[in-house]
Each structure stands twice: as C-alpha cells, then as structure tokens.
C-alpha cells in the first residue's frame, strides 16, 4: 500500500481536482465584521492603529452596515466609544447611548443584517478596566449586574446577539436571566468564553480607547499558557446559557479552537483580532507577502481548526474574494 500505487500528487494535479477534494472552504456565511461607533454626526474617521477601519457615528454606521449586508456578510459586531466615561461605565446601559442608537439605525437601514453587540465596560469606565473596582480589585459580581443591564439595553434597542467579552465569572448566567425575565428569550448570547490576556489586542485598544489606566487584565482574562482551563471556561458558559462560544485571539490559539470543536457541539466562533490583522497588513505593506493570499490562508486555517464563525476586520475584503 505505498508508492507508486499511492501518489498523493494525483489529487493536486489541477485546479478542478483540488476543488473537488477540498476539505475546507471559506464562505461569506462564516464572517462577522466589527464596527466602531462614536458620538457625533456624519463621521467616518480612519482609525490610525487599524488601517482600513473607521470610527463611525450612529448615522454613518447604518450606511456602512447596509454595504456590509449587500456583500452578504450575515452580521456586524458593534463597539461603542461614549463621550462620557465614569467609574461604573454607566453610559453603557443608557437608552440613548451610542451603541443603542446605532442598533436602531442599522435595523432601519439593513433589517436582514444581524446585529451583535460587544458587552463589556472597558470602553465606558474612566479607568479602562472591564469591571467595577472595589478595594483596588475588579469586583466580579457587581460587574455582572452591570453587564446584564448593558446586555438588556442592547436587546431592547434591537440587538439579535449580545457578546460579553469581559471574562467575569457567571456573567452569562446574569445576562441570560435578565433576558428571560424581560421577555427577550430569543436573544442569542455569543460569549467570549476562552479569551486570553493577549498582546495582540494592542491596535484595538487604541481604536476603542479602552486601554486600562493601571495594571493589566490578567486577573480576569486567561493566562496564555493554559488550554485545559479553556475547556472549563467554555463548558461553564454553555451551562450558563451561551448559544455560541468564542475563542480569542484566533491565530495563535488554533489548538484551543480545535479542542473546543472536538469537545462541544455548539457553534464555535473565533476572533481574528486587531494585532493579527495589523501584523498581516504591515507585512504586506512592507512588500513581504501577498496580502490577499495570506488573508485567505489565515481565515481558512481558522475555519479548518474548527471555527464556524470568524470575526474579522478582513470580512469585507474576504467576502469580495470568496463566493457564496
Ligand atoms: C473588550 C474587547 C477587547 C477586544 C474585543 N473586546 C479588548 C480587550 O479585551 O482588551 C479586542 C479585539 C481586537 O483586538 O481586535 N474587552
């Protein structure tokens, strides 16, 4: 049972043959496009740290969302930059908050597009941490209360999916209860279940103006060295009522995506984060690699590892390149 009976190259002999035996194909159906919304009108300002990404205002984000929908991308993920920050991040659950208004505008402009919202306080607190601070520590349970208010206000504004990214214990349970009690039983929770304390969020923190003013996020986001622990995190979020679980970042965590795929039957999302995006863009700008080919290779690898859903700043570019 070996050479020359078996020649692996037979199945690679032409483009059509390769298509015929291809195991993984990236589809526009897999993609989610993140968008940043800030207070104002008529805004479309380039984000310095993230080439090709913009800060929108609630009116212009609706036009952008309509374009995303016309590319057949199924969903956008919204991040808010409020004008006013305070100790608890109270603007996060304001009915007239920037994300709440953006959701309503997008639903008018592109009713078929799914709106996912990031649920986390770091962009809303004056200290930039993902939770409220008590005695110089992040207070887990008090934070969960606030996150459930934030998620509920997104649901009230019309969000289809809420995506908690804070890594507090029990927050999925708090959010699920708040949604059930208020008759939003069909709102999906996509939890950032295995989210690592990663250096690859650097460009995003500039974009979202959400860098912590002291310390780091290592008491809540996961230690980069751990994999078994990610399985516990994911199992807990599913038990608490998450419908979709996410691994973040993606590229250096393909092993985690793969293990999650083998172990859990629910949809698995992966976040192709800002540092991964800019690493590729900078290398391409320096003439070191072919941007389109490298982008498709990266996204295909994330899917091959087991992700059903890929959140990526490349979504629009990728959608134009892949069919159906
Ligand atoms: C908020 C949040 C972050 C990202 C998504 N949601 C930053 C962080 O945790 O510091 C990072 C996304 C990216 O880098 O593209 N908690």
Average per-residue pLDDT, rounded, comes to 97
How many β-strand runs?
12
CATH topology assignment: TIM Barrel
Strand content: 15-25%
For the record, the count of structural domains works out to: 1
Fourth-level CATH superfamily: Aldolase class I
Portion of residues within helices: 25-40%
Q: What spatial form do the alpha-carbon principal axes imply? A: globular
What is the ordering of alpha helices and beta strands? HEEEHEHEEEHEHEHHEHEHHEH
What is the radius of gyration?
20 Å
| Largest sheet: spatial strand order | 1-4-5-8-9-10-11-12
Structural class, please?
alpha/beta
Number of helices: 11
Spans of at least 5 consecutive residues whose pLDDT stays below 50 are: none
What's the CATH first level? Alpha Beta
Q: What can you see in these coordinates?
A:
The chain has 324 residues and is of the alpha/beta class. It is 38% helix and 18% strand. It has a single domain, classed as Aldolase class I (TIM Barrel), CATH 3.20.20.70. An 8-stranded parallel β-barrel has the order 1-4-5-8-9-10-11-12, surrounded by 9 helices. Strand 6 and strand 7 (137-138) form a beta hairpin. The protein is globular. The two termini are 39 Å apart. The structure holds ligand PBG. Ligand PBG binds at residues 118, 120, 122, 130, 165, 201, 204-205, 217, 273-274.
């Amino acid at each position: 049972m070996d050479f020359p009976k078996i020649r692996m190259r037979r199945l690679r002999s032409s483009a059509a043959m390769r298509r015929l035996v291809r195991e993984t194909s990236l589809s526009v159906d897999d993609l989610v496009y993140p968008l940043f919304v800030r207070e104002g009108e008529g805004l479309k300002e380039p984000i310095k740290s993230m080439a090709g990404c913009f800060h929108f205002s609630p009116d212009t984000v609706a036009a952008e969302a309509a374009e995303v929908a016309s590319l057949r991308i199924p969903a956008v993920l919204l991040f808010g930059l409020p004008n006013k920050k305070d100790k608890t991040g109270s603007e996060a659950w304001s009915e007239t908050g920037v994300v709440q208004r953006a959701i309503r505008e997008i639903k008018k402009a592109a009713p078929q597009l799914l709106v996912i919202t990031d649920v986390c306080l770091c962009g809303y607190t004056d200290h930039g941490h993902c939770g409220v601070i008590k005695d110089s520590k992040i207070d887990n349970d008090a934070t969960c209360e606030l996150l459930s208010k934030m998620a509920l206000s997104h649901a009230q504004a019309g969000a289809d999916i809420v995506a908690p990214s804070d890594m507090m214990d029990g927050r999925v349970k708090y959010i699920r209860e708040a949604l059930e009690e208020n008759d939003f039983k069909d709102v999906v929770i996509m939890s950032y279940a295995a989210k690592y304390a990663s250096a690859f969020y650097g460009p995003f923190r500039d974009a979202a103006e959400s860098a912590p003013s002291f310390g780091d996020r290592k008491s809540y986001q996961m230690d980069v060295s751990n994999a078994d622990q990610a399985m516990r995190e994911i199992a807990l979020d599913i038990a608490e009522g998450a419908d979709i679980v996410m691994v973040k970042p993606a590229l250096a965590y393909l092993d985690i995506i793969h293990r999650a795929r083998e172990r859990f039957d629910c949809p698995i999302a992966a976040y192709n984060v800002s540092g991964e995006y800019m690493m590729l863009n900078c290398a391409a700008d320096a003439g070191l690699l072919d941007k389109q080919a490298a982008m498709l290779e990266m996204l295909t690898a994330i899917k091959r590892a087991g992700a059903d859903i890929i959140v990526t700043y490349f979504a629009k570019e990728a959608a134009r390149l892949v069919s159906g």
